[in-house]
Amino acid sequence: MIRSYVADLHVHSVLSPCAAVEMTPRNIVRHAAEYGVNIIAITDHNACDNVTAALEAASDSDVTVLPGMEVETKEEIHLVVLFEKMRQMKEWERFVEAHRSGRLNDEKRFGAQFVVDAGDNLLRVKEEMLLTPLTAGVAEVSAQAAALEGLCIASHVDRPVYSLINQLGFIPPDVILDAVEVSRRVKPQEAARLIPAIGGLPVITASDAHTIDDFIDGPKITLFLEKPSLAEIRQALRNQNQRKVVV
């Protein structure tokens, strides 16, 4: 049976140095349950160390957590990549690790990068700098995501920085995208008209939350699915088999 799910597919945890310390996996899941968000994706910058904790934190709730990551390509373009299983996420992590800069993080300048468990206990501080471009380009990144059966979404294409369209001016034909995301700046229903480079790609919105207030108040989408899975979301983005996205 098809039913509606409220989803936020772009949420940062304390692993992202730009996120507030309140953005622990357990706290994110707790607020998702409290505010009726059925599906969330944990999408930290160039890393996924807190995804397992979020999955465990959600295991006794009605919240579905999707493994994800927000990647910064060598062109300084942000892409949200989502997977169904941690097995795929781990393969993706190996690809990203091979293309990270290797530079160490400057906590005073950029903020700390905390890895925590499902109980929000500190496990370690990630030392490698995450807020920096990979050595892989947008076409290579999107192709690898597709090879691992992930969803690839161009982040906040309406923003003046870290946006595929702003950086390049167009979407290259060799970039494999399942959707584009807009932020609060542009209503999703008006995005294709205001940003013609989007073409016929599906448009979604998400909170891109770095604080709990961002998460609570930020934009969401409603997905009509049979169950909360990546395969179902893929069909909804394609408007297949009565699955659909309402923004």
Written account of the structure:
One of its GO terms (molecular function) is 5'-3' RNA exonuclease activity. It comes from Lucifera butyrica. This is Polymerase/histidinol phosphatase N-terminal domain-containing protein. With 247 residues, this protein is of the alpha/beta class. 28% of the residues lie in helices and 21% in strands. The strands form two sheets. A nine-stranded mixed β-sheet has the order 9-8-7-4-3-2-1-10-11, sandwiched between helices. Helix 1 crosses helix 2 (51-57). The longest helix is centred in the middle third of the chain and has 13 residues, at 86-98. The radius of gyration is 17 Å and the shape is globular. The model has no long low-confidence stretch (mean pLDDT 97).
Q: What's this, in brief?
A:
The chain has 247 residues and is an alpha/beta fold. 28% of the residues lie in helices and 21% in strands. It has a single domain, classed as Metal-dependent hydrolases (TIM Barrel, Alpha-Beta Barrel).
SS-based class: alpha/beta
Sheet with the most strands, sense and barrel status: 9 strands, mixed
Helical content stands at 25-40%
CATH structural class: Alpha Beta
Q: Output the CATH homologous superfamily.
A: Metal-dependent hydrolases
Determine the CATH topology. Answer: TIM Barrel
Mean pLDDT: 97
- CATH architecture identity: Alpha-Beta Barrel
